[in-house]
Every structure is written in C-alpha cells, then in structure tokens.
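Memo to structure team: turn this sequence into structure tokens by end of day. - J.P.
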Amino acid sequence: MALLNGSSDEKFGIILTIIGLIFLIITTYIGFTTFGVWSDEIFSILMINLPFKQFLAKGFTDVHPLLYYFIYKVIFKISLLWGYDNPFILGKILSLIPIYLLVLLSFTKIRKNFGMLTSGIFTLCICAMPRIMIYAVELRMYSWALFFVTASYIYLYDLIDSPNRKSWIIFTILTICSAYTHYFSAVASFCIYILFLVYLVKNNKELKIWFLSALTCIIAYIPALYIVSIQFTRVSNGFWIDPISLKTVISYVYFILSPANEFVPGNQLISPTIIGSLLLISIIYLFYKKRDTYTSISFLVVILVPLIGIVISFIMHPFFHQRYLVPVIGCLWIGFSILLAKFWDDKKIFIPVICIVLIISTIGCVDFIKMEENDLASDSYELNDLNLNMGKNDIIIHDHISSYNKFRFYMMKENENIYFNNSLVENVNNTLNSQNIQHKINNGSKVFFIDGKHENASQLRNAGFNLIEIKIYQPTYGEVYKAYLIDTKRA
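Reply from structure team:
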C-alpha cells in the first residue's frame, strides 16, 4: 500500500512491473499449451532418461557443462516417484523458474538499491525484451545461465556499495553455479570478477576477500576441468558454427535488440531493423550521459563476452553462437534500467525510450506466439503423416542420432526404434533376421528406415533392399530426414 501512495516515478514503476508480469504470464501460458520441440531439446530429454553412468559418459561428449542436466534429471526422477512422467511440462517449469526468480530479485534487491522505477523497467525488460520469451520456455540451460549471471551482477552492487559476508557468499555461489551451467556464462562471471578487481585496485579497496572468493571458485571448478578438456578437444576437431564475419557481429547486436521474429537454431543471421537501431542509439546515449562504475561494468560484460567468443573462434574454430549471448542479456537490461530511470525528469528522453521498449516488447510477444504456434503446427503435421504410415508396434531403423532420439522420446515412442551409426547394411540384415524382429513382422509389424543426414538409402538399395519412400511433412527446423518403408517380403 505504501508503494501505491508513493511518488509518480514509483507509481509508473509499478505499472511497468504489472506490464512485465502480464508478458511473463503470456509466456508461461504459451509454454504450457504449445509443445513444438527441436533436436537440442530432445537431447535434454535423452539426458534425463539415461542411467547415471551413461548420463556422465554422454555429458562428457556434449559441449555444455552438466549442472542443468543434473537438476533436470533429479526433478524428473523425483516426479517419477510421485507417478508423474511428463518431461516436457517439467522442463518448461524448470526453464521458467529463473525468470520468476529474477522478477523476485527485481522487486526486492533492485527496488531496494535503485528504486521502484528502475525495478519496473528491469521487470519489463527481463520478461519481454527480445529472445527472453523464447529461452524462458526452451528445454535448455539458457534461462538458468541468464539467472546465475544476472543475480551475481545484482549482488555485485552490494559488494561495491556496502560489502558484507552474506553478499560475498551468495556472489561466490552464484558464480560457481554459472560456471557449471554454460561456458559463456562462466566467461561472463569471469569478466565480472576481473572488472570488479580493476575497480578495487583503482579505488584502493581491500583485495583479500576478492582473492578468497576467486580461489574458492577456482577450487570448486577443478572437478570440471577433465570434462572441459574432453569437450574442448571435440570442439577443436570441428564444430558446426560458420566462420565469424562482420555480418555475424552485426547479427549479435540485433539478436539482442530486435524483436525476435524467428528462432535461430543454426547459422541464420539477424538483419538490422529500424526499431533495433533506435534502441541501440538510445542505449549508447544513456550510457554516454549517465554512466557510472556499476553500469559501466554491466555494458563492458556484454561487450567482452562476445569479444572473447570471437577471439576463441579465430584461435581454435568457430565456436561462438548468438544464443551464447543470452546469459549476459540480464546485465545489459540492469544497466539500461538504471540509466533510463535517471532520465525520469527529462520526459523528452524518457518517454520515447520507454515507448521503444514497449513497442519491441509487444512486437516480440506477438512474434513469439506465432513462432510457438507454428512450431506446434509443424510437429502436428509431421506426427500426423507418421501416424498415417506407422502403427504402434512397428520397427523404425535410424542412421542418425537426432532422428532416433526424436522418435523414441517424442514422436513415435510406442514403436521399437533402433539406431546404427556404422555398418548399416550388415546391421539392418542382422536386425531383420533376428528372431524377435521376425516374430513382430509375422504378427503384422512393418519396418521403416529413417535416412538422416547421411543419405544411406542408396546403400540399402544397392544391397538389394526394396525401399518405398513415404512422404512426411518436414519440421520447420532441426534435422531433415527421409522416411522409407522396407519391403520385408522382398528384402
């Protein structure tokens, strides 16, 4: 009630908070009512279904740390004890939790430190600005990486303004979690630590606790170094990201600032937009006019993370993807919110900039709903075509791990899915001649071959198999495949 009786800027902050929460409710509703998934999300489902030893072995070959998968797996196993086995709903809940936690931090920590107006602007930005809606409902680790980096940056203010043991402990724990969630959230946390060190040295502050905290983070990360070495060896042997060019760097900027009207699973580039350019100009102007130490750190982190990613890409192999910017988006919007709130009395600046934010948020929300609905429709068309051709006890042979995981966990779970990554002809022959498969075929089961990226259908045809292609609606994005019925009578 005290807030409702506050000054005009506080009241406007409350209005922005309510608008932000409306966007978050929309995101939540869409997340729970549309279930289009892509290959990376299917991989998350695969990880939580693996026995623990296989979970670790598979995790070592991935290119991300294991904390997110571990949390997801624990929650899934607990839910199974209660008789609930829907990993998709659980995954959506898990991905949404960090955004709700950031809203809570906004209403508590940010409001306490910077006022209700800054809190309201940040709540709107963290709920509705580009890309956040998408990654808030994706079954991946990005929303958690966003939370750990953003929360640690929020607590950094306490360490600058009024350092205390509690804030140092929380800051250190958040940093460790960040490093175990995503490698570029680890990079972001590293940048925050280094920039904070520069601040301490420049202002002749005590360094003992900083070194103790940094040492704690390093020691805590030692168990992960073996995994990191394995994963980076894999990356150095080749990765799927295209070489970085000037167009790629420009795309990084508009990935963050333009309304998200398309998902970016691969090497698609985001073109400049007028509204995104207006926001970029606004951010530069705000920073130029009102920057301070704390907001300077936020913008430097946002610049340094992709810069480090670009350097690594040139030294090793193209390695930095646009979505790796998601962990630092929160730092950008904190700095932006603090600076914009300082212009409250200058309505010629404040009103146009907040209007730009609201326009981008609204356009992005509409596009987000369209994308999710299109993904759901795409999966529905694909599943309908599969069901028209396949029964519930058929045998489906795959030559690509992505389609194999998609079929056995999402599309065609009630069939027997089999995967071979080599010796395809020999393995298919052995499968068809096995007693178990012959028994199923004699009882009416059909055998299908899903030809992934490798285009192995010709191998089977050359070996004498009669393959009858069936038309399947192809997904909007992800792994493209061709489906064939194997004529077992003539195989």
